[in-house]
Amino acid sequence: WQNFNKRHFFGICPACLKIGEHSACSGCLMISYCSRDCQKEDWKSHKTLCKVLGKLRGGSGGQHLFHKDPEAHVKVSLAVKEVVGRPLTQYESDLLVHARICMVCLSGDQAKLQNCPGCHCVAYCSQECREDDQELHQTVCQTLHECITDYMFEAKKGNELKCFLPPPMKSFTPLPDSLEKVFEDDISHLLSDKADQDYKDSELRRLTFLYTCPATVLHAASVSG
Fold first, then answer.
1. What radius of gyration do the chain's Cα atoms show?
2. Which of 21, 31, 91, 147 would you call most buried, defined as having the most Cβ atoms within 10 angstroms of its Cβ?
3. 3-state SS class at 122
């Protein structure tokens, strides 16, 4: 994790980075783990924040801090910052801003919430709420899935192709109609056969993002002659 910008997704176990439906910490209800062992492993990192958030919500019997009131994160963030005596890290800020509450009715009842199985980045407390948001959510579900997947692979493996440079060409060749086609063959050759397709797809997305600007300049130059 050195030099890595740690972020929080409630659909990712902070200990093992497994994506899925996890159980909320009973102390703060703000972070979820895939198993008791992972919760114990992460306790040293989570302990300080958990105790502060637990007190703010009135102990284990209290409701989620943002139940029906997601805008409370501003007051909670200021309170936590004052107690710990330092600015919040990006991870801590993410945890408060992107809390696991129902996307529709804003319920913070963790026992009733279920993540969207497609992206694990939003949650719903009932089938009715899920159906209410279905049309809008389907426009972003795949993008959210890619975001959480890309983060998980970067956290686990880093970027195997971070030093990649497209091979030089002796003559000008017009860009294909899709930027992905520029890198598909190189990724297949450079990544080990053991790499699964999801990881290859993630690295392909990263490369197309990195080279969008220079490819745009090249395309503009080729069009202008």
1. 21
2. 31
3. coil
Indicate the pairing of strand 32-33 with strand 114-115: unpaired
- Taking the model in full, what pTM does it have? 0.86
Strands (E), 117-203: 123-124
Residues 76 and 29 sit within 8 Å (Cβ to Cβ): no
107/70 Cα distance (integer angstroms): 9
SS (H, E, C) 80-100: HHHHHCCCCCHHHHHHHHCCC
Rounded-to-integer distance, Cα 155 and Cα 153, Å: 5
Q: How many helices (H) and strands (E) does the chain have?
A: 8, 4
Burial (Cβ within 10 Å: 0-12, 13-18, ≥19) of residue 84: middle
Per-residue pLDDT tens for 61-117? 789 999 999 899 999 999 999 999 999 999 999 999 999 999 999 999 999 999 999
Distance CA 36, CA 177 (A): 49
13 touches 24 (CB < 8 A): no
Contacts of 5 by beta carbon, 8 Å cutoff, 6+ apart: 90
